[in-house]
């Protein structure tokens, strides 16, 4: 079953739940116009006018929300919450919120994306996540070397399958309790959620997590795998033009472009822009953190009067350029270049 079929084709694709929520639960971001140019639906709030106004960290109120529970988010009390770890472990462990918060607190800036994000879409955001290392918590139980999958379960019953290897390979996988310096809000998973850098959210970012079953791939098919989506889903390198807006008008001469680019795990090496079929021109990276977070970029193109199709691509630190082949979001994420068309007079 496709996510479009599940929630209605009128609302497009989804990522860990209903795209209707992706349109409604935008916090105070407001609704932008739907720009269908280039086959990409642009549902972002009204864009800033200058590159300087692009924010590296996404505000909690603007961070995308994708759920299968509608607006009936689980309302858990910290003192009543617990996390059970069981399955292929040396010993079963149950931890309380106090147990989690007693562990060393760490923070990491991580970009989290939805597999249903169209090229150029806004089902992606970057936050400073705080909490404890998931690998340290799993070590309390002792993971069987033969284990392959962590089946995490939300308080609402939703299930997610995460590769054990992705949690134990040294990346900063977290049981997060904080977002951008504040305690998690209910909508973003209070009291505890998972964050695993480099993976799409539907295979890593369980909110209101209450249970982790350490098991094998063959033993259990989680929620979205049962509906035709990929079992393992690493986030894909991609990039986005936020400035200028599609169909905007500009004076002939130097036109400034800006936006975001990401290359999970490998990290962003460079960003390039072009008009039409011209040669790629290198853009400037304005702000970055680690390979687990996107970058803010800025570029300039000298454009004559007429209509111009602008494009952006990212090249990772290993020298691999963004995949330009056009592919749909199902089953493991969209590929292709983000393009916007503008008028120059």
Quickly list its features:
single chain, 345 residues, mainly beta, Immunoglobulin-like, 5-stranded mixed sheet, 5-stranded antiparallel sheet, 19 strands, disordered N terminus
Structural notes for this entry:
The chain is mainly β. The chain has a domain of 107 residues: Immunoglobulin-like. The chain has 5 helices and 19 strands. A 5-stranded mixed beta sheet has the order 2-1-10-5-6. Strands 3, 4, 7, 8 and 9 form a 5-stranded antiparallel beta sheet that branches. Strand 5 and strand 6 form a beta hairpin. The radius of gyration is 20 Å and the shape is elongated. The termini are far apart. The N terminus is likely disordered.
Q: What's the layout of helices and strands?
A:
Layout (H helix, E strand, L loop, with lengths): L2 H5 L11 H6 L57 E6 L5 E4 H5 L4 E8 L10 E10 H8 L7 E6 L4 E5 H5 L5 E6 L2 E2 L9 E3 L13 E7 L22 E6 L5 E2 L2 E10 L5 E8 L5 E2 L1 E4 L7 E9 L2 E11 L21 E7 L1
Parallel strand pairs: 1-10, 12-19
Antiparallel strand pairs: 1-2, 3-4, 4-7, 5-6, 5-10, 7-8, 7-9, 11-13, 13-17, 14-15, 14-18, 16-17, 18-19
């Amino acid at each position: 079953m496709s996510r479009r079929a599940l929630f209605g084709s009128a609302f497009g694709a989804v990522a860990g739940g209903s795209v209707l929520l992706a349109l409604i639960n935008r916090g105070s971001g407001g609704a932008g116009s739907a720009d269908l140019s280039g086959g990409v639906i642009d549902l972002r709030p009204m864009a800033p006018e200058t590159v300087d106004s692009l924010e590296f960290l996404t505000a909690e109120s603007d961070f995308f929300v994708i759920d299968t529970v509608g607006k009936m988010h689980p309302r858990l009390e910290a003192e009543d919450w617990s996390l059970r770890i069981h399955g292929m472990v040396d010993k079963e462990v149950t931890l309380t919120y106090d147990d989690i918060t007693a562990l060393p607190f760490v923070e990491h800036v991580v970009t989290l994306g939805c597999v249903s994000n169209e090229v150029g879409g806004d089902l992606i955001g970057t936050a400073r996540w705080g909490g404890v290392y998931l690998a340290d918590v799993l070590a309390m139980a002792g993971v069987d070397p033969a284990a392959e999958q962590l089946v995490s379960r939300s308080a609402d019953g939703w299930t997610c399958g995460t590769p054990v290897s992705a949690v134990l390979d040294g990346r900063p996988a977290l049981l997060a309790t904080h977002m951008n310096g504040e305690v998690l809000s209910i909508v973003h998973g209070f009291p505890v959620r998972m964050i695993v850098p480099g993976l799409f959210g539907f295979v890593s970012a369980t909110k209101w997590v209450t249970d982790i079953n350490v098991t094998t791939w063959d033993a259990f098919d989680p929620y979205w795998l049962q509906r035709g989506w990929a079992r393992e889903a690493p986030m894909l390198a991609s990039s986005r033009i936020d400035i200028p807006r599609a169909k905007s008008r500009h004076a002939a001469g130097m036109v400034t472009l800006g936006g975001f680019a990401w290359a999970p795990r490998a990290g962003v090496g460079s960003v390039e822009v072009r008009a039409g079929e011209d040669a790629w021109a290198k853009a400037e990276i304005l702000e970055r953190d680690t390979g687990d977070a996107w970058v803010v970029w800025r570029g300039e193109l000298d454009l004559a009067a007429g209509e111009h199709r602008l494009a952006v691509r990212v090249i990772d630190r290993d020298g691999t350029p963004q995949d330009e082949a056009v592919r749909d979001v199902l089953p493991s994420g969209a590929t292709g270049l983000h393009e916007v068309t503008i008028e120059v007079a």
